[in-house]
Amino acid sequence: MPSRLSSGEDAAQPTPVSLSVTQPTWSKRLLWSVTFLLAAGVSASIGAMLTMMTPLPPSIAPQGEEQVSLGDVWQRGFGYRISRPINVLVMGIDRVPNVPDGSPEVFSGRSDTMLLVRIDPVTESVNVLSIPRDTRVSIPEEGTNKINHANTVGGAELAARTVSANFDGVTIDRYVRVSTGAFRELVDLVGGVRIFVPQEMYYVDNTQGLFIDLQPGWQVLNGEQAEGFARFRRDATGDVGRVQRQQQLIRALRDRLMDPTVLPKLPEALRLVQQSIDTNLSLDEMLALISFGLGLEQDNFRMVMLPGRFSTPSEYVASYWIMDEEKRDQIMQQYFQVDSLDIAAEPRDLNSLRIAVQNASGNPGLGREVANYLQEQGFGNVYVIQDWPDRQAQTQIIVQQGDLQGAETVEMVLGVGDVIAASTGDLESDLTIRVGSDWAGHTEGL
User: Fold this and answer.
1) For site-directed labelling of 154, which of 15, 110, 306, 345 has its Cα 20 to 30 A away?
2) Whether residue 385 sits in one domain with residue 313
3) Same domain, yes or no, for 216 and 245?
4) Final residue belonging to a domain, choices 266, 301, 336
5) What are phi and psi of 37, to 5 degrees?
6) Residue 108 vs residues 134, 146, 239, 435: alpha-carbon distances, Å
């Protein structure tokens, strides 16, 4: 039985509640609930957050002696709640050669994906920090190494201690580990996911069972292709590009799960991943997380990648992701409520915001027009990058480094745009503005 990683008060204290919802509302919220739990991070959390609901027994008794069947639960909801914010460490584990399926050893590999997830019933939000696997950290009793090494030498407990030690002492209340295989089957089960592939992708890794051969453009990816899209790293962005593509898949999966035709397949999805996880979440805690997910609004699901830079050959022989400690502290304060004495909660100066502008309208020159407009409004660090190959109707303001306040300021100045809390923009930027065709119509009134 996995050990609990935090001491003191239980991370989740389920208490019975009564639910009264209409069937249409229940179906819609169930879809988003499963999307939230499923989509806290592809490879790791597509399986992991879904499996926070599993295994469900044939019957449970949340209130008194009343027996509730799985069918009743699916129709009426769960009588459990979490009483305070909790942090869950989610890891997707690399394939371990020569280990049979179902063996505990399948969870002994390196963490291919690592996510720190904060579930907060007070603010009714979920925040997800993606930690690149090559992040250079100090592993307790082991020394300096890549963060994906921690699970290999010390399991989930050492991985959690490592995250806490290197991320301002953040408390890790629970963990979830997912083996390979579940992700492919889950995507196939829901009929694939629609993804825009920005470039040709070709890569073969026989050790990990990967064969990636994708062409540019919009397409529906099956499970094997989606895993390849998420794990591809043969480009200039390497490991960090994988994090960005994983976040793209989260959004695509969310859209797919909002399709009512997928709802009848969800019980099968739960059974599918039951044997693909290791977690110290109790059954009651799993049910409490589902209950929380039922009321979660999509706008309250936010993702951010650990800011940093690639190491250089002159620094280290191995290739690392070197975290930006100041920006790490800002994220831990804003997204995880971890106090840091070195961080002052003051608005950033407009000149300090590094803003990348990317034309996605198909209208030549529109990106430069937006950049000039921002400079006229007092933003002093604005630059234009290569056009995005997919045309968009709506402008997006992508919160690359987690600065939500800065994104909201830019949105007000532009008068258009949808703030996207995901690190899928230009790696060097604080914010990336992907200009849609709505900007052309908006400027007519300026």
Assistant:
1) 306
2) no
3) yes
4) 336
5) -70, -30
6) 17, 16, 21, 44
Rounded CA-CA distance 401/424 in Å is 10
Three-state secondary structure call for residue 139? strand
Q: Is residue 17 part of a domain?
A: no
Same domain for 403 and 363, yes or no, is: yes
Half-sphere exposure of residue 125, counting CA atoms within 13 Å on the CB side? 14
Return mean pLDDT, the chain: 78
Q: Are 309 and 202 in contact (CB under 8 A)?
A: no
Which residue range(s) make up the domain with 208?
23-336
Same domain, 395 and 312: no
Q: Tell me whether residue 18 is in a domain.
A: no
Answer yes or no: do 404 and 309 share one domain. Answer: no
What's the pTM? 0.78
For the purposes of burial, counting CB atoms within 10 Å of the CB of 268, is it exposed (0-12), middle (13-18) or buried (19 or more)? exposed
Average pLDDT over residues 111-125: 91
Cβ neighbours, 10 Å, residue 127: 25
What distance in Å separates the CA atoms of residue 108 and residue 96, rounded to the nearest whole number?
7
Confirm if 438 and 418 have CB atoms less than 8 A apart: no
Quote the number of domains for the chain: 2
Q: Is 341 within a domain?
A: no
Residue 379: how many other CB atoms lie within 10 Å? 21
Do 50 and 145 fall within a single domain?
yes
Tokens (6 digits) for 243: 């994090």
Residue whose structure tokens are 């089960």? 189
* Three-class DSSP category at 293: helix
What does the alpha-carbon distance between residue 412 and residue 300 come to, in Å, rounded to a whole number?
A: 19
In a domain, 252, yes or no: yes
Please tell me whether residues 329 and 424 are part of one structural domain. Answer: no
Residue type, 194: R
The two tokens of residue 441 are 């119509």
| DSSP label of 315 | T
Between 412 and 41, the more confident residue is 412
CATH of the domain at 140: 3.40.630.190
Q: Which residue has the tokens 């629970």?
A: 174
- As a whole number of angstroms, the distance between CA 340 and CA 333 comes to 7
Q: Which of 307, 336, 365 is the last residue of a domain?
A: 336
Say if residue 56 is in the same domain as residue 167: yes
Which residues touch 198 (CB under 8 Å, ≥6 apart)?
216, 388, 389, 390
For 330-369, write each residue's pLDDT tens digit.
Answer: 999 999 999 865 655 566 677 889 999 999 999 999 999 9
Q: Omega of the bond prior to 55 within 30 degrees of 0, cis?
A: yes
Strand partners, 56: none
The beta strands (E) that lie in 259-411 are given as 277-279, 301-305, 308-310, 321-323, 355-359, 382-385, 396-399
